Amino acid sequence: MNKASKNNVDNKNDKKRNLKNTKNESDVILEKEKIISDLKIKLNQAEDRILRELAENENIRKRYEKQTTDNLKYAVKNFSYELLNVTDNFQRALHSISKKDIEESSNLKSLFVGLEAVEKEIYEIFEKNGIIRFDSLNTKFDPERHQAVSKKESESPEGMIVEELQKGFMIGERLLRPAMVIVSAGKSEKKES
Q1: Does residue 183 have a pLDDT over 90?
Q2: How far is C-alpha 85 from the geometric centre of its chain's CA atoms?
Q3: What is the pairing mode between strands 174-177 and 146-153?
């Protein structure tokens, strides 16, 4: 084979090799781009999963903090509820002493003043701990806050509270004990004879 035809064959072989190398290089580039694309998708999915987990952890933390705060706020509920009986007994004791007896006996007057001071102090301690008594007299009956024990005819419109037998108490925004009340049945209608 002559030199020119050998160079021609070599050039063709070089072109084939170059074409093959170019094809291999573009296949490698395409393969690398596919791998990069897959990795980007996986990275986005992992990032999304991490963000969701972080948000869930934040929600759990907030729920835990609220639960802890509520537990602290309402931890005194049972203790307070038991003490309400003591305050009721103080009120009964104070109301059982007639004004006439207090005026006649200086010792009884001193005892009465002392009992009133203890009762007042108990209510102040309650208030410091978020326990508030509420008045119900002359308000509209609310089944969420009141316990009606009876109805009676009165000048007040129907559904209004005319007597409060026992004070109601709230602890924070929750009801600790409903007020025990008597509700107006309205005016009595006199029958004509």
Answers
A1: yes
A2: 28
A3: unpaired
